[in-house]
Amino acid sequence: MMPLLDVRSLTKTYGGRIGCADVSFRLYPGEVLGIVGESGSGKSTLLNCLAGHLLPDAGRVIFDTRAEGPRDVLEMSEPERRMLGRTDWAFVHQNPRDGLRMRISAGGNVGERLMAVGARHYGEIRAQATDWLGRVEIGETRIDDRPSAFSGGMQQRLQIARNLVTGPRLVFMDEPTGGLDVSVQARLLDLIRGLVRRMGLSAIVVTHDLAVVRLLADRLMVMKDGQVIETGLTDQVLDDPQAPYTQLLVSSVLQV
Amino acid sequence: MSDTDYNFAYLDEQTKRMIRRAILKGVAVPGYQVPFASREMPMPYGWGTGGVQVTAACLTPADRLKVIDQGADDTTNAVSIRKFFEKTAGVAVTERTAEATIIQTRHRIPEVPLTEDQILVYQVPIPEPLRFLEPSEVETRKMHALEDYGLMHVKLYEDISRHGEIATAYAYPVKVEGRYVMDPSPIPKFDNPKLESAALQLFGAGREQRIYAVPPHTRVVSLDFDDYPFDPSKAPHACALCGALDSYLDEVITDDAGGRMFVCSDTDFCASRRGEAA
To answer: If pLDDT is split at 50, 70 and 90, which confidence band does B55 have?
Structure first.
């Protein structure tokens, strides 16, 4: 099977400091990869390099495009990368304010990606927006409300709807449940898990919350100081951690 | 030259040359905003400093100038700019649209169709159509460069969802020659179809230091949705003075008891119709 995303020796330094060093992995269609590690371990740097928000210093990111097969994302032109960013890719920010337009209605937020790829029929755009709000459990009556009138959990669900409306194949998530209380977190995780399974999405989830990856991820990558120190199936890594740091990470989780 | 204290048309020749270069580039790339080194003019920003500089760069001693403000030849802004060029360039002036070779305008396009021998100069307050959607100039330039115009339709979407129709009534965004999205300056959307004209149209924004152009016979399409097509609406009345049904109307309040009348905003159009009728 052809990997959807093939990352080879990706390196990013900030001057003399290492962001992430020599990271390689493959992501297959329908697979969810979790990246865990403490703050400053290079998770977000890695994710931003993959999504094209940061330019890495070395390495290749090869994506299996719909039209032309495997292509190195870093060698694409800016318009091509932007097009990819609003069709086949999606990026869910930790803070919904970074991913939403706060002064535009919920319907407009969901419709933006459709209009960016050429949808020009108001009725159809609105119908799709309504459909997607329903799928993320936001009432149809809220379609003309601005995200600033939404709760944190609703904003995060709206951000997910806005990202998935064009039917992407690869979703990048940066701490999707950060800043939410536990009951809202549980519902959001349920929702994400359902959507990922139903749409057959591939996803890369960056988080410091081991419970999130336990629920969502098939495979796990543990990072420390910009290096990948352990990889494997999620249950295998969490139940039988090999690296000393991973053992520390797993044993640091508070029990209720 | 009427007044030897000034160079012809106020600006020095080097400056006019610089502005002409910007105009030529604007004509070559229709709808693209060309930066230029806007000069201080002897009038405040917002009074047409951009338009005046473009007009100064285009004027020749043989030209006949017309200046309108909201369609009228006799408002403060129009009168003062007309006098300015009478004094500094000594050119002939007129109020008749058909007789003018250069027309400087604020917020209107004359009702009488323009010809290939005429230049229409617009005064532009904010040239960037994406400005109120995306505050960063770096980002808007990138969006123009990459033809990334989805956001413009988001604005129209918001209009429909809030008002039931596209409520943008002036400065209605257009796409020029299938490439650049352009702000046609705050003309009423009634005038948008007239942007496809035989005349050369130049846009000058003094404070924002931008010049752009629509060459003659260029395709100019007003943005819309398939199920909410562009509608160049106007007040559903006839002109109270000349009876015209097809011109853009101003509403004039006549007393404190709710009395009002609708008259042509283009004063020359209205006057010449009444002259013919009499």
So the answer is: very high
Which residue among B46, B150, B270, B275 is the active-site one? B270
Give A 119-138 residues with CB within 8 A of chain B. 120-123, 125-126
Cβ atoms of B196 and B241 within 8 Å: the answer is no
**pTM score, two decimals?**
0.86
| Nearest alpha-carbon partner for A89 in A112, A66, A68, A111 | A66
Q: Is B58 a catalytic residue?
A: no
Interatomic CA distance for residues A16 and B102, integer angstroms? 62
Is residue B31 part of the annotated active site? The answer reads yes
Which has the closest alpha carbon to A51: A88, A24, A98?
A88
CB within 8 Å: B157 and A123: no
A214 vs chain B: nearest CA distance in angstroms? 38
Per-residue pLDDT for A63 more than 70? yes
H-assigned helices in chain A: 43-50, 78-86, 96-99, 106-116, 122-135, 152-164, 182-199, 210-216, 234-239, 244-251
Give CA–CA dist B50/B208, Å, rounded.
9
Instruction: Report the Cα B241 to chain-centroid distance in Å.
Output: 25
Cβ distance of A120 and B225 shorter than 8 Å: yes
Question: Active-site residue B258, yes or no?
Answer: no
- Least Cα distance to B127 among B27, B212, B224 occurs for B212
Between B150, B161, B228, which is nearest A112 by CB? B150
| Facing B158 at nearest CB: one of A86, A108, A116 | A108
Contact B241, B263 (CB under 8 A): yes
Alpha-carbon distance of A132 to A139, in angstroms, equals 10
The ipTM, to two decimals, is 0.85
pLDDT in tens, B174-184: 999 999 999 99
Nearest CA to B73 out of B269, B249, B268 is that of B268
Average pLDDT over residues A110-126: 94
Residue in B closest to A125 by C-alpha: B157
Longest Cα–Cα distance of chain A, Å, equals 57
Residues A123, B227: C-beta atoms closer than 8 Å = yes
- Residue A68 near chain B (CB below 8 Å): no
Reported as a single tens digit per residue, the pLDDT across A5-33 is 999 999 999 998 999 999 999 999 999 99
Give the closest residue to A74 by CA, choosing from A143, A5, A126: A5
Main-chain phi, psi angles of A148, to 5 degrees? -65, -20
Q: Which helix (H) or strand (E) holds B87?
A: helix B76-88
Tokens of A211: 């419970």
Q: Is A77 on the interface with B (CB under 8 A)?
A: no
Whether B223 and B230 have beta carbons less than 8 Å apart is answered as yes
